[in-house]
Design a protein that fits this description.
heterotrimer, A alpha/beta (316), B alpha/beta (447), C alpha/beta (752), A: 316 residues, alpha/beta, TIM Barrel, two-stranded antiparallel sheet, 11 helices, 10 strands, B: 447 residues, 3-methyladenine DNA Glycosylase II, Chain A, domain 3, Rossmann fold, three-stranded mixed beta sheet, 17 helices, 16% strand
Chain lengths: 316, 447, 752
Amino acid sequence: MAVPEVKEKYAGRIQEVTLGAGSRGKTVAIGGESTLPFLHFEGTVANRPAIAIEVSDREPDDWSPLLKEAWGDVMGDPAKWAAKAEELGADVIALSLDSAHPERGNTGADDARKTVRKVLEATTLPLIVYGPGQKDKDNEVLVAAAEEAKGERIAIGNAEEKNYRTIVAAALANDQVVIAKSPMDVNLAKQLNVLIGDMGIPKDRIIMDPTTGALGYGVEYSYSVMERVRLAALGGDATLQQPMVLTVGYEAWRTKEARTNDEVPQEWGDWAQRAILWEANTAITLVNTGANLLVLRHPQSVALVRKAIDRLMAGA
Amino acid sequence: MALSGIQIYKVLPQTNCKECGVATCLAFAMKLAARQAELSACPYVSDEAKAMLDTAAAPPIRLITLGAGDRKLEVGNETVVYRHEKTFVHQPGLFLRLPASLSDADFAAGVDKVAGYTVERVGQMLRTDGVAIEGASADAFAARVKQAVDKGLAVILLASDPAVIEAGLAAAGNTKPLIYAGAGADSAALAPLAKKYSASLTVGAAGDLEALAAATEKAVAAGAEDLVLDPGMTGWADALALPAQLRRAAIKKNFKQLGYPIIAFPGSLSDSAEEEAMLASLLIGKYAGLIVLDRFDQAVVYSLLALRQNIYTDPQKPIQVSPGLYEIGEPEPGSPLLVTTNFSLTYFSVAGEVEGSGRKAWLLVADSEGLSVLTAWAAGKFDAEAIAKAVKTTGVAEKINHKSIVLPGAVAGLSGELEEELPGWKVLVGPRESIGIPSYLKLLASQ
Amino acid sequence: MSKYIAKAAIRGATAIVNEADQLLEAAIADLGADKEVAFTNTAYYLPTILGFTGKEVSNLGQLRDVVAHCKTLLNEPPGDELWLPYLGETLDSGAATLLAAETIEAVRFVRGQQPEKIDGLQLVGTSAPGGPGYANGPIDDIQLRAWGIQLVDGRMPGFAAIVGCARSNEAAVTLIRELQKRNILVFLSGNVNGRSIIDQLQEEGVEMGYDTYIVPFGRDTISAIYALGFATRSALTFGGMSGGQIRDILLYNKFRVFAFVLALGEVDDLKYAAAAGAINYGFPVIADTVIPQILPTGVTAYEHVVSMPFDDIEGDTDTDKARRMVQRAIEVRGVKIKITDVPIPVPYGSAFEGERIRRADMRVEFGGSKSTAFEYLRMVDSDSIEDGRITVVGPDFSEIKDGGAMNMGMVIEVAGRKMQEDFEPVLERQMHYFVNGASGIQHVGQRDITWIRFSKAAVDKGFGLKNLGDIAHARLHAEFGAIVDKVQVTIYTDPEKFEEWLAKAREAYLNRNVRLAGLIDSNVEEFYSCTLCQSFAPTHVCVISPERLGLCGAYNWLDCKASYQINPTGPNQPIYKGTCIDADKGVWEGSNAFVYANSQQAVDNVSLYSIMDSPMTACGCFECLVMLIPEANGVMVVSREDPSMTPAGMTFSTLAGVAGGGLQSPGIMGVGKYYLTSKKFIAAEGGFKRVVWMSSNLKAIMADELKQVAEREGDPDLIDKIADERSATTVEELLPFLEEKGHPALVMESII
């Protein structure tokens, strides 16, 4: 019996963005698809979603003991940490210059340069470099990072509506990619892409972070916002066609489910299994609505998500 | 094409008899249009109107019921492809597969695990729905089905021999079981059985939607009404692609032959409980009606239930947390008192930041009808009066030894009014975004 | 383009190209064609030459091609009888001048004559080789990137290339200080009769160098080329362009680098030629001498060449004059200045917005029951005000006893290229939020019912009337910089002046009211959208027209128009009406197309004036709900504040669930309460006469407006004929009420 044609003919396509150049042994392209996630029957999925492992330049004091257990000593040294992350299957290293935060060390541009240099030398993978999330310090250390990594095509972030100009300028000056982060809202994401685009940075150098909540903590908002972004992009809205990155590890490991096993209901099950699944299931749910790059924390969830993506790409 | 309230009103009796429970016929019509009411509530509706409304209102995906009593499970009846378009309506059922090879004790343990699992999240009790029982001999099968049904569980009958199936159906009684005879089974042949026992019936066709549509048509012709589709997923990409096509055919093309809920078995495509959980997550996100797991780990089930609850939240009616006073990190009388709204995401953001800061605080959650701070403020639902009311009703003043309350920075404008509503209190203005809370608490502590 | 300038520029260009040719040939003869040439630490070769020609010049021989290219750009000066356009020729001459100047500097570099030796000059921060006693010469790449980022991200608004010598040392210092104050980078070069502004600053002990953002390039005009080399490299670095893409490079500078040239002293042919070169980049030239002006908007953002003869500038001292000159230069280039801090003696921020000042804590109040205060913001000619000037006319409140009151009027005058008279009330209303941000100050009301209280604590810290002006000035710049260039505030307490200005203000308020009343949908080209609520109602698009404000009541058409000017990528976008499809229902091709595109294709037809046929969607923030009551052949209007039962059998909150969420539901819609008074209120169904029931609080709040509507509708007692929750909460109660009152809806044609 004839079934009506359900293939969509989309007018738009997601922008492809490549991370890594110069001394990087590997480059990673994300985006480029012409359909919704893994619907191989109606379009091309040009690149598999990539996985970045988050590495901090400061031994985190608020991370779950499970993460400390998994990474061990390397957590005190971003270079070693990055090398181990590469070994454990990362596509990209997401280096967080957290120590620059005024309340967490207040390190400056010179420290940032040194850290970036060390990590570049310790891994062959492309880098994302995140600032500490405080306006002035972000500007200070991201400019330094962008200069230090000139020629390596790293991504720097986050450029947000209230603070994007310096970061974008640093990306422009040093030929880097910029991460545009907006609060879970299609129109705000669009506006930021337009503003950043207006500064003259080419579209193949913008990745958008529409912000996510973890499973159980608002993941459904991201699910729908991302789906709307993606449908608009495929529908031809050029201002929303940037590939999407999500800081899944940060969100998932902040939840009570992942962080602790103290006084939790017995029905929550085994702590380690729950925590890792919390990260992996948040990740896969976002992959299901268009995530192109996931920043994760635990080696086991990295392995799980990687294998899941392998399987999803197998239909291509 | 959905009818508008006015169009529906025109064919209603227009008597305002109120017997439907709504004050006027127009109000009832509006509710019908918004799918907040059922036409059957109107005792005086004409046949002509009924026919017209039925056609227009018939769900593009048939509503299927499994189980009975308080575990009655309804799946299907979905009206949109993307949840932001309106909402996903009926959460997919979560089942555990119990193979025939299990010992009686293990079987009983499996049933108990499923029946006994319940967990609270954001004020809702979440639980799994039932078991999928694999048939061996008719007698053993009947006994096992009965055992599950007695525990109140919905059951899926995994059997291919009609005699075994019938034994299971009989044992299930009036609990509306689902027959699953395997992907290659001749479902039309089982249609009379399904009809006889008011059961629903799975129709399968491996990866071929045309064959699947033909099979459902045949089953309907043979007397079955309540069908479930097994499109025969052979890999993970299939598990996304096939349901996507079925959903579009049913909703966008109104193609009735494929307008039924979908059943999926993620375990058979996975090597571990975690992988199974991830594929199940993909299926919850996109279009499965029934998910049968091979493994039952509490952590897996909990994460899937949380996701299911998230995805099936109405995007236009956000989850609320109960208003009241929340203690974060065993606060002391001297700990700061913060106030926010009862929109779940707002609550989680604020509570999460306070927890993450490692400090103790009292969090007063005012009833904003589930709106976020700014939206509630704009709607007049988070004003000085509402906050003062929350302060008074929760009796927080008895628990703390100070009279300071921290307002979200976005509503700094309320501080003056609030000081008037709460004489003797000092109103402090906190950060605009929850991310600023840790620094703010640190500052407070240093003062 | 003045023919005078064209002639001078072409003459100047011809001379410098010849000079470059001779110097180059002499250098090649002395040093050989293979002799390397390079500027200080740059990867961009000779940057202007690279930008214009794509040539990566690294030795003297390669410069011959450049000189040859210059010659092709030279033209005959226009003859006295020729009236052909000559802008192109002049600009070409300008380009030739730049290339020749860079050639000359390159040759000088080779010969060790650059950077220029200037005795006693000690730079604080430089990349120039040679140590003390030398000008900086070109800026190296590291400094370029550091400053470039600031220019791109807006921390540094632009740069000023100063060429020549100021009228006096006093004027020179003031110019520099005024530019520094605004964070504008300063490049110095040139001289007049051998005396340079560099000498003037040196004499006055002004520190120069990278650290003070003042870079002395050299004492001749030719060294000004380094400014354009800097501009060219900015485009190459931040614009992602490569050598030879000169069109893009020039456009980049025009739109993104806010630079201008200050030509001080006599302008000779070479300066004209160099100015023509700068105009290529979109950098206007402001001269302090009498020269022909080039005013039409074209290549530069605004005027090309502006003459501001120093003697004619208003002001008693050279300092005053220099200050005005800088202000003018900034306006000409359209440089936007950001003011981040509000310079007042009390803390300032949104955290203080809700503060109440109780009578006991109050030092003084303006307005309220015991005195009158008003705020009046008006648009004026840019030339008639001075930015940042704040004047108090009359006594302050020191004579007023504690807790007393006095009359006060605040007149805020603003100027800006994008300012429109229609924005006056939009900006004026912001004063409420602006003033409230100050700790210890309370602001209520607007126009001539303004009521401001100063607390004792704030006054003790030194807060005075003038600070109100400081707030207005700082915040208008910060929030409305896109439309406001200058703000001047005058505060009147002098009784006579106060009355005079109060009368003027009242006249303006009246005129605005008349203007608003005359602002009707058919007289405008565009409506505005509001998509602010799409985060929770993804398919909702508010279409806001002069006669239908946003359903939340917060945005009317003028607000949206201003909002769009301020934030062109924001949620308020213009909707060009296009062809009218149905004038009665309010349907246009443009609004339909916009809504379709922005509602995820969910809504393709919207009637602005109908509740029955394709009414506008609603998000959930509506002030009122309008719903059909078919039994009464009319509609009811329920206010958000009304918790009572309505004749529809549902309360506001239940109804809101039916009407909201971005769905189109004929028979029910959300509106802003002032739409009720519009002539276009459900005009398709017969207008306001259809209202058979209305929440009593609406009747009370809008009593005056509703009375006018009733009169307009020709039924002065209409409001009394409308039921409310006190007279009817069911259809059964409603109908007899309407019969008894003789409500017009009962005899109107059927609404369904």
